[in-house]
Automatic annotation (TrEMBL):
The keyword Manganese applies. InterPro entries: ATP-grasp, ATP-grasp_RimK-type, ATP_grasp_subdomain_1, RCK_C, RCK_C_sf, Rimk_N, Rp_bS6_RimK/Lys_biosynth_LsyX. Residues 296-380 form the RCK C-terminal domain. It comes from Microcella daejeonensis. Residues 104-287 form the ATP-grasp domain. The keyword Nucleotide-binding applies. Pfam families: RimK (PF08443), Rimk_N (PF18030), TrkA_C (PF02080). One of its GO terms (molecular function) is metal ion binding. Residues 377-389 have a biased composition (Basic residues). This is RimK family alpha-L-glutamate ligase. GO terms for cellular component: cytoplasm.
Length: 397
């Protein structure tokens, strides 16, 4: 395959290793500076220029988008997606992961355990939020920090309030998060590639530091992960839409607590700690998947008028609870059930014999009208009405 690595740091350990791993496997590889692309929207087809010339064709792209260029970098990745070039990490996945709040919001609806987190803006809401996550000591985080910068441990509520107010006054958004003291300055970094963890390490903070980032002097050692940690890491990456990710987890009393999902994980620490060829695993995965670029299913399926994708919930007490999918009448209504979600398990392509349970969620493709008629509680779309008579403006005194 012919692969482009998007990176502004051709000399860095990670980029170098990825390039070498690709060459060793007989692939053609180019490292392209992300900021030298031009997105061309003038022609009939999505296009890209690089250093002022039309870009030659690639089978795959591996984005390594630094924090400082997220907006432009994800725009370039999105353009590759529009051109049907395979990327393990989509533009959406990268932007979702980059914003710690957005990532937490997305993960929280999927039963991924995380440290209790709050997000507020008004001064009056700061103290109740601190109390809700468990009081002091409390962790305060800038939304887009990396390498431990922008992560603060406030020992007292008063100090926390002062820090948060100061940051708010300079228009910085911050997360308020419960301090997981039992992790004692340690955390787990799991490198997810595709649907498995290919390498994992434990990082231990230096001295009395609580942040275990390698850039903050953290030491690294290889670990074999408990299945619970492996599952949490793989699911988190998958939910974020990332096929290559570094998932950071704290070791809580009740198991893994996911802190963040990194879309451009560094390879030096993890390869040194584990002596594993992580770069090779990434390249092998891309070569294996290259024929199937991720597609935006909703976007593709919504192009026929009147048809679309929707999720139907089997409400407790509904007639179809306990019947099979085949007997439920759903399939006769020109509706195709793509997946059945039950709690945290997903049953792809459920068969006619599948028995439906209360609270099952069916991801369906079909006629929007038919699907709407099956969700009783929502209001139907009304035609546009005439503006009601407004009171006459009172003449100015
Ligand atoms: N809620 C927390 N409780 C205890 N330690 C934490 C908590 N949040 C972060 N840390 C420590 O701080 C480090 C950096 O936090 P993280 O959210 O990963 O930010 P960054 O993006 O800067 O790496 C983590 O690796 C961990 O060691
Ligand atoms: Mg981190």
């Amino acid at each position: 395959m012919k692969i482009a690595i998007l990176s502004r740091a051709p000399q860095s350990y990670s980029t170098g290793r990825l390039r070498t791993a690709a060459v060793q496997r007989g692939h053609t590889v180019k490292v392209l500076n992300t900021l030298r692309f031009a997105i061309d929207l003038s022609g009939p087809e999505p296009d890209l220029h690089f250093r002022g010339r039309p870009l030659s064709s690639y089978d795959a792209v591996l984005p390594r988008i630094g924090n400082s260029i997220t907006y432009f970098g994800t725009a370039v990745v999105r353009q590759f997606e529009q051109m049907d070039v395979f990327t393990p990490n989509t533009a959406n996945g990268i932007s979702n992961a980059r914003d710690k709040l957005r990532a937490t919001q997305i993960l929280s609806r999927h039963d991924i355990a995380m440290p209790a987190t709050a997000f507020v803006r008004n001064r009056a809401d700061v103290r109740p939020a601190i109390e809700r996550v468990g009081g002091a000591p409390v962790v305060i985080k800038l939304l887009e920090g990396t390498q431990g910068i922008g992560v603060i441990l406030a020992p007292q509520v008063k100090v926390a309030e002062a820090i948060i107010e100061t940051l708010h006054s300079t228009n910085q958004n911050v997360l308020i998060q419960s301090f997981i003291s039992e992790s004692r300055g340690r955390d787990i970094r799991a490198l997810v590639v595709g649907d498995r963890v290919v390498a994992a390490m434990r990082r231990t903070a230096d001295g009395d530091e609580f942040r275990s980032n390698v850039h903050r002097g953290g030491r690294v050692e290889a670990v074999t992960l408990d299945p619970a940690y492996e599952r949490a890491a793989v699911r988190s990456a998958q939910i974020m839409g990332l096929r290559v990710a570094g998932v950071d987890m704290l070791e809580g009393n009740d198991g893994p607590l996911v802190m963040e999902v990194n879309s451009s994980p560094g390879l030096q620490g993890i390869e040194t700690a584990t002596k594993l060829d992580v770069a090779g695993a990434i390249i092998d995965y891309i070569a294996h998947e290259v024929a199937f670029p991720d597609i935006d299913v909703r976007q593709r399926l919504a192009v026929s008028t009147g048809y679309g994708v929707a999720e139907l919930v089997v409400h407790a007490g509904a007639d179809i609870v306990g019947t099979t999918l085949g007997d439920s009448g759903i399939l006769e209504r020109d509706i195709t059930v793509l997946t059945l979600n039950r709690g945290t398990t997903v049953i792809p392509n459920p068969r006619r014999g599948q028995v439906l349970q209360a609270e099952d969620r069916l991801l369906c493709f079909g006629k929007m009208d038919e699907m709407r008629s099956m969700t009783p509680s929502r209001r139907r779309r009304a035609s546009v009405r005439k503006l009601p008579k407004l009171p006459k403006p009172t003449p100015a005194a």
